[in-house]
Amino acid sequence: MITKNELVLDAYEEMRVSGLTVKPQPNEIVSAIKKMDNMILSWQNKGICLAYVRSAGYNDIDPNQDSGVNDVSAFAIVYNLAKTLCPMYGKQADRETKVNAKIAYEGLFSPELTMRDPTPYQPTGSGESFFFGNRIGGYCFNYFQTIDESAPDYCTTKDILVGQIDFYGVDFNPYLNQVDGDTIASFTVEDGEGVKVLNSAEVDGVINIEAQGSKVGYAPVLITITTSSGRVLPENVNFNVIAV
User: Which CATH superfamily is domain 4-115 in?
Assistant: First the structure.
């Protein structure tokens, strides 16, 4: 396990090469984690899919939270975070740090496919809780569009075999938390062509679905929630159904 605190402290250690010897205070560690969250989200928008666990909220930062990343990803995060933090102290990152940051960052790209770093929080035989669709302002909004034969290569697109049955959770809590006390009052689930939803249930702001792959290709499933405050949010779950 690599905690977020360890990543930040390693970044500060790397900053010593650039002449910064300050020992980070607790508030500076929190600030660095916020920058790290934002940095890795920007990477995801460029097609780099890490198993990084984002903080629960902008003002809900836990330095001891497991980052979820592996050793290879950790090096890229540390070098690039050090480069990002240096200007906060009126310094520029050392040339060696910049070079290492660039090499490590480029190493995260796959020459053929978008990287999908396996998550340590996904139990064997189960899907994972995640956001789906395109992120706008930290939330996902991706309405049905013309169906293509291949699934969009989002980090959140889930592969499923024809005939495979698996479980997936869609966490709506970040959206619910925008309004104090808001909960899911009701929800609907619409099958995507190629994926059949066998069962669905809501538990503590998470919609859990049991899905079965049935036809090869792109198969979006639409989940629409209505909250206790009257807000309505449609959410696409993108599946890539693969032949056995």
Answer: P22 tail accessory factor (Gp4) (1.10.3230.20)
pLDDT digits (tens, 9 = 90+) for 89-118: 888 888 999 999 999 998 887 544 444 444
Residue ranges of the chain that CATH labels 2.60.40.10:
129-242
Is the distance from CB of 175 to CB of 233 less than 8 angstroms? yes
* Whether this model's pTM surpasses 0.70: no
Question: Does residue 69 sit in helix, strand or coil?
Answer: coil
| CA dist 114 → 49, 68, 157, 201, 235 (Å) | 7, 18, 11, 31, 22
- Please state which CATH number belongs to domain 129-242: 2.60.40.10
List for the chain the helix, strand, coil content (%; round to 5): 30, 30, 40
Q: Count of residues for the chain?
A: 244
Residue 15 phi, psi (nearest 5): -70, -15
Report helix angle 4-15 to 71-85, nearest 10. Answer: 50
